[in-house]
Specification:
Layout (H helix, E strand, L loop, with lengths): L10 E3 L17 H7 L13 E8 L5 H4 L8 E6 L6 E7 L5 E6 L10 E6 L2 E4 L5 E9 L5 E7 L4 E7 L2 E5 L6 E7 L5 E6 L5 E7 L2 E5 L8 E6 L5 E6 L5 E7 L2 E5 L6 E7 L5 E6 L5 E7 L2 E5 L5 E8 L5 E6 L5 E8 L2
Antiparallel strand pairs: 1-7, 2-3, 3-26, 4-5, 5-6, 6-7, 8-9, 9-10, 10-11, 12-13, 13-14, 14-15, 16-17, 17-18, 18-19, 20-21, 21-22, 22-23, 24-25, 25-26
């Protein structure tokens, strides 16, 4: 049984530690598992009670073959800000104020605590308490501070939620076995995914109280919506007929595939109002990397020394969030800001 901290509306100040060397070492996670875990609870990886500055800038592709296909890469400065005492923290959503939605987890057997959703703002963490849940993840936030995500109840069922300054609303797609909410825009339009009895996963849009199912044409039983901007454009991932997970953009009623050059897996997870997209991909060696895409040009985003990096949201200032794994296999939050 997992036990959650009953900390309601508590602000916890992050401990800051400047790191002058590489913070992450090699580890591996199967790419297919990563894609599936991002379907409902949205994130497959979650770090400790510290914040770390990663020196240097990253803007180049991970290898020469991809570098030839990338144009005008963006340089980033990296910071990790982790929940105090928790070995794992993930950032999953960021708004234009720089407020961040995310979650932390305790992995040691001596502290069996489930995933706990948090809001990070003004230098502190606020735990989002979901009564009766055994774990949850905050994965999206709009400019008003409305937070969305997913939680698991005592019976093992997963539900979406929206949280507004202490007011919690459960979101379930009608008739679905499981529901996960992934993104919210400033008009309170919500994007997510649901699992039906057949085992197929579908993306959805919730707007004005009405649900609309969204499936990439020809998808093999898997389409997930991971982010939405203020234009109503949605990004996510789908599985094609060959079993490959690919990213997509849904705009103006049409779907467009997104594939990082040379990747064996791509997921588009966040999109801002300028059309900039953040996500992650696996290279030919099944190593995970973050990426951003501007006007069709890709940038591979990896903090120095990091492994299994993923990005899941980008705001209108180009700041993007996600996580990266260390040598112990634990995930640390990641905030990447375009270098000036």
């Amino acid at each position: 049984m997992r036990i959650r901290y009953a900390i309601a509306a508590a602000l916890v100040t992050a401990v800051v530690l400047v790191i002058t060397g590489s913070s992450f070492q090699d580890a591996s996670t199967p790419s297919e598992t990563r894609g599936r875990l991002h379907s409902l609870f949205h994130s497959a990886r979650p770090g400790p009670a510290r914040a770390a500055h990663f020196p240097g800038r990253q803007g180049d592709a991970s290898n020469a073959d991809q570098a030839e296909k990338l144009n005008s890469p963006v340089a980033y400065d990296f910071v990790s800000i982790d929940y105090p005492t928790a070995p794992e923290t993930v950032f999953d959503g960021i708004n234009d104020h720089g407020w961040i939605a995310g979650w932390f987890n305790f992995t040691p057997a001596s502290s069996p605590v489930g995933d706990t959703p948090v809001l990070y703002r003004d230098g502190g963490f606020q735990v989002i308490n979901i009564p009766g849940s055994t774990g949850g993840r905050a994965v999206g936030i709009n400019k008003k501070g409305h937070v969305v995500g997913a939680y698991e109840d005592a019976g093992g069922s997963e539900h979406g939620f929206e949280w507004d300054d202490g007011k919690l609303s459960t979101i379930d797609f009608p008739g679905a076995l499981l529901t996960g909410v992934q993104g919210i825009n400033d008009s309170n339009q919500i994007a997510g995914a649901y699992l039906e009895a057949s085992g197929n996963l579908h993306a959805f849009l919730l707007s004005g109280g009405a649900f609309t199912t969204l499936d990439f044409p020809g998808a093999a039983g898997f389409t997930s919506a991971l982010g939405i901007n203020n234009l109503g454009e949605i990004v996510g991932e789908y599985k094609d007929a060959g079993g490959i997970y690919r990213g997509y953009l849904y705009s103006g009623g049409s779907f467009i595939s997104i594939d990082f050059p040379g990747a064996v897996l791509t997921a588009a997870a966040g999109v801002n109002d300028k059309g900039e997209i953040a996500g992650w991909y696996d290279d030919a060696n099944h190593q995970g990397h973050g990426f951003t895409m501007r006007a069709g040009s890709f940038t591979s985003v990896d903090p120095p020394g990091a492994t299994d990096v993923f990005l899941v949201a980008v705001n209108n200032k180009g700041r993007t969030v996600g996580a990266a794994r260390d040598a112990q296999g634990e995930y640390h939050s990641l905030l990447a800001t375009p270098s000036k």
